[in-house]
Structure formats: C-alpha cells, structure tokens
Amino acid sequence: MTLLPRIIASLALSAALGGAQDWNLSGKVVDAEAGNGLKDVKVSLKTAGLSVITPKNGTWILGDPSSVLPRFSGPSRSGAQLTLEGGKLALYFKGVNPLGRSITGSPSAPSEAPILALRQAAVVDSLVFERDGYHRKSVALESKVSTGRVDSIRRIRYDGWVDSSHSNRKADTLNGFTRKFRSITFKWSKQSWDRMMKAMTDSCGKFGSKGSGMMGGTSKNCQDGQYDLIEKTALIWVPVDLEADGQVWKNVAIRLKGNASLQTAWTAGKYALPVRINTDKLEDSFPTAKDQRFYGFQKLSFYNSEQDSTSIRGPIAGEIFRQFAIPAPLSVPVKLTFKFGDTTKEVGLYEMVEVPDEPFLTRNFQNDSGNLYKPLSKLNTFVDSEWIDEDIPGDRADAKALINVINATNRTTDSAAWHRALEKQLDVQGFLRWLAASTAIMNWDAYGSLAHNYYLFNDSGTFKFITYDFGWSFDYQMANNGIVSRTSIWYEGQAGGMMNLGPFPLVKNLMADKNYCESYRKYMTDVIAGPASPAIFQAKVDKYSSWVTAASPNTKAIQNLRGFMTGRVTEIQTSLSAKSCPVK
Question: Is the Cβ–Cβ distance between 378 and 503 less than 8 Å?
Fold first, then answer.
C-alpha cells in the first residue's frame, strides 16, 4: 500500500463535496478573561501543519501567502493554498507539493481502503491555539469553509481565580468601592513580613523606637528630601494574599507607605501601619497573577487612623470634590486584619483609596496616554528631583513649560497674553474649583500649604490638576498651629505658616489676577451652598458613620466632625465679605 503524504489530512469529507475547492480559514483569537485580541498566539492545523502567528489584534488567516509552514520542508514557503480534493484537506504552494513535485491540474484523491472507510466523517482536522502562559486549546474543524470565527483561550491561573473580580476588565466601581463596608485580610508568609519590616528597620530604626528632637521621628534619620519623612529604600514590595468578599487575590505586591502616618505608627510600635498594594507588580515572579486586578483596580492605598481618627473624612471629602465636578479618587472605610506567619493582628479601621492612574484617568479624562506626575514642587522653579518618575523618560519638557508660564514676567505687563499661555498649559478653572473646595473643607495637607499630595496629568497638552490624600480635611488642628488660616481664605502673604514652605506661585498669582480671583470667589460661594453645605455635609457623615458602626469606630470624633461645616461656612462668609479681588 502506498503511504499517504503527511500533508493530506487523515479524515475524509462527505463524497458529495466533489472536486477541489479553495479552503481559506480565518478568525480572531481573544483572551477569555478580558475579551481583547491576543498577540503572538500560534494558530495551527494539527494534522496538516500549516500555522500562523497572530498580530496585536489577534486576527489570523490560514491558506494565504503570510502563512508559515514550520513542519515541512520544500523549495518554497510562500503562496500557500488550502484545498479540498475529493474530500481531503490538502496544502499546495507555488505549483508544487511539500515534496517539491510539480502538480498539473487538480490531483485526484488517494483511494486507499483506510481513507474510503472514513468518507462519512465530519471532521477534517483540528485548529490548535498555543501561547506561553495560556492553556493549549484544540478545536475540531468541521467540513465547511470557516471564516470570521472567534475563539478564546484562557490564561493559566491559580485556584480561586474569578474573572469578574480578578481579571483586567473595566473597573467595577460599585463592587470595588461603593456597594458595602467590607473587611479585608492581608496574609503574608513570615519570610515576606520579615523582609518588609527589616527594610524599614535598616533605614529608620527599630520598630517601636522613637527618635529624639522636638518632633520625635524614627530612631534613625531616614528622611528623603524636604517632604518625604521615609526614604524609598525602606519601602520594599513583597507578596501578600488579599482576602475579601469570600475570595482570595494571590501574590499581590504590598509595601509600607506614608510620611507622618507611617512614622507615628512605626515609632509607637503599632501594627496598624499604612500600606499600598499593586495587584500585578510581581507578575514576573508569579505568572498566574499577570494582569490581576481587584474589581478592575490595580493600585490601592490603605490609610491608617493616625491620619484620620474617624476613617471617614477622606471618603466625605472625595464625595464633595466629585459632586463639585473635581476629579478625585474613590475611597471608602474598611476594616483590616494583618496575618503573618502564625501571628494575627486586628489593626482596625482604615481608608481604602484609589491611586490616580488607570482606571481613574480613563474614567475622568477618557484617556490615559499622557504624562502623569506626582510632584513634590511648589511650582516656582523646576527641580528635576521633584519630578522624577521612572515611567516618564526624557527631560520632562512639559513640566518645565508649565512652571515657566506660571511664573512668567508678562503676568503683570500683558495679562491677556499670560491668560492665553497659562490656559493652554493648565486647566485653570479646574484648579480654581479645586482650590475653592479644598480651602472650604480645610484640606490643609495639600498644595497651597505643603508641596505634595497632588498629581498633574498632561491631557493632550493641557495639564489637569488631580487632588489626592485628603484625610486631613475638616481639621482645625493645623490652623491652630499656624500652617493655615481660619480667618482668611485668600492666601494673602503666603509665608507658609510655621513650616515656612511658601510661597506657592500658582495660588498667589491667580489670587493677584482680578478675573481668576473672581472665579475663585464664585466657586467658593457655590461649594458652600452646594456639596459642602452643612446639611449635605452632615448627611454624608451620617451615611459613612452607618458603614462603620460594627467596626469599633471613634464615635466621639465622628460626632465632633458632624458639626464642622456649620462653623466653617460662617468663617468663609466673613472672609468673602472682607476682601475684594484682586488679592495681593
């Protein structure tokens, strides 16, 4: 018996198909979790051997000149053609078969008995999809032309993975933040916990050991620059399992975070340490966590009660900002438990905060392609170290241009030209809306008092100001210490309070311009009559207070918070009446 060439598929089609026909196959292969087209998937015919590698959008065609034939040798690998010949699936290219023999006309089908016995089979071959990190998938190929098909393949994941909560889909803000109060457990191995704590100890001194001096601090000086009280080498990423909602997110990256909040807890020996997570940062070491998300969110911060004894100030401030058309990260109170090795620590109420990146940028600006900075800058002069970001290479020319126009000398000599140049570089009205709302709620730990806790996003050439970390809002303590004023909302003088960190030229120059100053006045009037009005503010306090009632909240602090805006609105109204614009 003559052996059949390997290029002929071993299963037959119905005899009714008759002579030779072109048989082009095409389709798209997508990620089963995210639904997007997948690059670098090898799509092949198992028996015939024809294969192709998908481009970025996951599309593929078998049977055209772009197909690749890795399993067969021959004089040419171009012009591949798939045909059905007498019920056989066969490959030809450039007029020769894979053995290099010339072909004239349509070859007749072999008639060996084993093939004839299979003439009624409905399957001619199998499509196979293969990619590193994904399960290999084989799909039976039926005896009809198959074009425009869509097939999905699934990543190799750990047990307990749920696509709706773990995969990289559109952020689920309802389940991620706003549906209910939740308890979260972080579970470290003893080795990972010890590594994290050792890095902090090596940089800043022993856990529970307070330093000397007027403001205390850690036992070793680990301050990094003017504003960061903890140097970056102390904050290493280690793996942790996050348990919430009856589910587990494995091998999430976690590190300590913060300035005064971390320093205070560390020196006091309190395990309620502030932390930050990145759900897929360690995917190179743990491939089953690749593109992992927490309900679509990749980066989250957890603020301890050292910053906010109520754990609800940040969520309330965020609602006020967003209701006043100011982009602000989502945040909610949560209850945390730390487990490391055989040790369990109930660390209490925290604020869980969205880190401004994707999906925040797409939700608020409909794109995430521009430069996103988190400066430590007063915006008076450009200092490269205040703008360092490993994700933004180059000389940060856009940041330099913004600072130049804020401080341009034509501000007083040609205000119209300055307005045009500034508004091209910055969403000025958006900043003024934020400044009014931030000042109204006494958000003192922010630009205008300290040179941190803000982001700048270059949205198609125009910077948008993004507020962040407002858990110190509704707080008279720093006003009483002289950092901010209770009696004035106008930032006149801007000496910078007892820390002497001023001036802040973006605020100072806008207040000295009549038009911008009047915009600020209007926004201030609107915000205290709207989302920051006493009645609406008290309703927000009551809402979040009900969330935390079962989690040992600081009820006295919450009750004191409830009356804050009543007195604050009176102070603001008095200050509005006391000044006319511009304020110099």
Answer: yes
